[in-house]
Amino acid sequence: VQLQACGGGLVQPGGFLRLPCAASGLTFSNYDMGWFRQTPGKEREFVSAVSWSGGSTYYVDSVKGRFTISRDNAKNTVYLQMNSLRPEDTAVYYCAAGLFWTEVTSTNPDDYDYWGQGTLVTVSS
């Protein structure tokens, strides 16, 4: 199984980025997909998740109204659209896949089965 996240980079406050995460080696449409982020010295933080069907989405309060998660099961890809970026969004962003068999996904990183390598997002002027 491989999850490949990309799309990170340096962006000014108020800017936007779109992070795709392409999956292979698994039946993508069976898996809930999540995005997490981590900064040095801190635990991995839940950002957003989408259920296997795409019918349910979840966000941490700090990104609600600014970030949008979506998935394309035909392309085995999940996306995180990040708008109105703030310096506190700076982190390494990881995508993850979890087999939950429910529309109620998980915000706990320990519940996810597979992880991508991470992509660095830096929000700075």
SSE class: mainly beta
What about the largest sheet? 7 strands, mixed
Distance N terminus to C terminus? 37 Å
Radius of gyration: 13 Å
Low-pLDDT segments: none
Counting DSSP H or I runs of 4 or more residues, the number of helices is 0
Question: How are helices and strands ordered from N to C?
Answer: EEEEEEEEEEE
* Shape designation: globular
Strand content: over 45%
Give the % helix: under 10%
Mean of residue pLDDT values: 96
The tally of strands reads 11
Explain what this protein looks like in three dimensions.
- The chain has no helices and 11 strands.
- With 125 residues, the protein is mainly beta.
- The strands form 2 sheets. Strands 2, 4, 5, 6, 9, 10 and 11 form a 7-stranded mixed sheet that branches. A 4-stranded antiparallel sheet has the order 1-3-8-7, with no helix packed on it.
- The model has no long low-confidence stretch (mean pLDDT 96).
Please outline the helices and strands.
Elements: E1 2-5, E2 9-11, E3 17-24, E4 32-38, E5 45-50, E6 57-59, E7 67-72, E8 77-82, E9 91-98, E10 114-115, E11 119-123
Parallel strand pairs: 2-11
Antiparallel strand pairs: 1-3, 3-8, 4-5, 4-9, 5-6, 7-8, 9-10, 9-11
Describe the structure concisely.
This protein is mainly β and 125 residues long.
Please supply descriptive tags for the structure shown above.
single chain, 125 residues, mainly beta, 4-stranded antiparallel beta sheet, 11 strands, globular
